[in-house]
Amino acid sequence: MQHVANDRHRNTTEVTLLPIVDSNPANSNCMYFALSCVVSQAWLLNVVMVCITFDQPLWLKAVEICRASGLDVFCRLGGLHMLMSYIGSVGKVFIAGSGLK
Q: What's this model's pTM, rounded to 2 decimal places?
């Protein structure tokens, strides 16, 4: 978005289409391609830390790919998925052994 905006202030709404990766996100090559494109764009824009948000299944795959390939990307779990994971862990820790299922 920093690259598209170029510090221009617009008085009217403008919609600009960014590139779309038209492939199956479950495919590791597709995910690696998207992550490497984001890293290269961040390098061009002098962005120090790359942060990307995914839903849970894609987050697991993205973290695996970043670790295996050494990409310097912070993969963030989406807000809803993070909340549900937290609620599930709290329920498991505090309700375990109470007889509630």
A: 0.61
